[in-house]
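ARCHIVE ENTRY
Sequence with per-residue tokens
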Amino acid sequence: MAKDQNEKEMKEMYVEYQMITQQVKQTQEQLEKIQEQIADITDVTQNITSLGKVENKKDMFIPIANGIFVETTLKDNKNLLVNVGGDTVVKKSFNDVNEMLGQQQNDLEELHGNLMVQFQQLHQKSEEIEKKLKTFVEK
């Protein structure tokens, strides 16, 4: 009877271990995506800062994709066009856009911190269960 109870408990622990391991993997993927988004925002902010220093009427190349550019002339070095949803675009100053991006970056960094805590808790719990499972197997 005790053996059956131990086996049942071990199976339940194993299922819990698998679920937690899956959550760890998903959380890790989310952390990586958030880090990529933060890096993208940093790049965009740097590009905006550089673009703000370019003179009006200056010919330039704007990247469309990796290694693909369009040649254009800068008409306005004070404002950017920002999609605000519903196919609506509004003019915003470089400073306003940088503030908006800064807020997005702060929000992502906060989310990253929260997920990191969750990741560490899940990882710790999976290690605890793994130790218990090893103990069961050794008996």
Observations:
- The two ends are 16 Å apart (CA to CA).
- Strands lie at 59-65, 68-73, 79-85, 88-93.
